[in-house]
Every structure is written in C-alpha cells, then in structure tokens.
Amino acid sequence: LAEEEEWLFAPEKSGQRWKRLRDKYPEIFKVGDQGQHVSDQFWGTFQNNPFWMAHFTYTESHGDSSTTSNTSTYAFRLHEKVPADFALLPRYPVISWRRHKLTTEWNDFNKEFTISYKDKQGITDDRDIIGTLNPIVQEKLMAFYRACGRYQLLFRGNTMLVLFRETFDAKHTNFFKKVGIAREDIDQIETRLKQIVSLVIDIVPHLN
To answer: What is the pLDDT of residues 134-191, one digit of tens each?
Structure first.
C-alpha cells in the first residue's frame, strides 16, 4: 500500500515514538499504565492533504486483570491555526488531565461529547472555544460521529488529530494466495481517510 500510494511506512513498534507523542499531545496519548507504543506508521499525502496515521496500543491494569486497547490515530495539517486548542472526547471516559469542561447550547452534542482543554497561564478564553465550536461545526462533528462512530478529536495549532477504537489491519488479505494487499483492505483505509479529509474540508472554513 505504501509503495502504491508513495507513502513512507514504518511497521515496527516504537515506545520512544509514543513518549514523544504523549509529551506533545497528552490529551490523546497520555493513557494506559503499560505497553504503550505506536506501530504501522504512515506518512504521506491524501487528496493533496499531508497526513500521518498509525496504530496506538496501550494497556490499563484493573487489579489482577488488564485491558489492552488497539486504536488507529490520524493527524492532518490544517491550512491555518484554530483560535484555541481543545479536545473533543466521548462522554464516557474520565481523563485526569482535564481542567475545564465546557458545554454548548445543543443538548444532543453535550450528551455525546466532552469539551476539555488546559489553560495556558489564563490566556485561553472559554469564548474562543465555544466560538470555534459554533453550531455549524457542531452539526458537522455530529454527522461525522453518526457516519464513523465514537472518536476522540484534538485541535492543536494547525493540527487536527483523530483517534478511533479500531485498527486498519489487513483482514481480507491472504499472502498465501496473493503477494499484495486485498482491495477490500485498501478500500477500508481509503474510506476512512476520505471521511476525515471531508471533515477537514467541511469544518475548517467555519472554525474562525
């Protein structure tokens, strides 16, 4: 797939790469208490949009048991910076780094998402985030949720980062029958990338 699309690819597991991502994007990557790593990293362009995607795996301990989560993460570069950095998270998780929780005037949106961010010495204003999450943007994010299921979203500067609790494994590929990736697996990855690119194109004009 990387050769076909002229993307860079690094399949190996990397704990060091995860640590760098955790330090830069703790809202997404500061989770788990063991086994954190990224793997199957791709760098390239899709429909003229620079992107990075990878698997992110982490394990959480629960007494004598543990749960391992396998996720896929996508980062796209925006054409301009958003007015304020913030994370949009599913309603159910409890994240220790949260300092603020905002709500919008749309109850359906509030039922699905938590808006969280960190102050930077009191500079960030709630109004910047609520202004960025205007009704048009909320509707497009809800439509994305209805089409793609639960996700986590982070806006940081000119980067939009999305995490899904799924992987882009080659489920339909059988290398004993054919040396190459099955078309169904390529379609799965391309469909997800198209959905995210469409989200970027749809909401960026309305973020300011």
So the answer is: 899 999 999 999 999 889 999 988 999 999 988 766 565 544 455 566 667 677 788 8
Report d(CA 163, CA 30) in Å as an integer: 13
State the Cα–Cα distance between residues 124 and 84, nearest whole angstrom: 7
Predicted structure pTM score: 0.82
**What average pLDDT does the chain have?**
84
State the Cα–Cα distance between residues 208 and 195, nearest whole angstrom.
22
Using only C-alpha atoms, the chain has a radius of gyration, in whole angstroms, of 18
The CA distance from 133 to 31, in Å, is 25
- SS3 per residue for the chain: CHHHHCCEEECCCEHHHHHHHHHHCHHHHCCCCEEEEEEEEEEEEECCEEEEEEEEEEEEEECCEEEEEEEEEEEEECCCCCCCCEEEEECCCCCCCCCEEECCCCHHHHHHEEEEECCCCCCCCHHHHHHHCCHHHHHHHHHHHHHHCCCEEEEECCEEEEEECCCCCCCCCCCCCCCCCCHHHHHHHHHHHHHHHHHHHHHHHHCC
**What is d(CA 201, CA 193) in angstroms, rounded to the nearest whole number?**
12
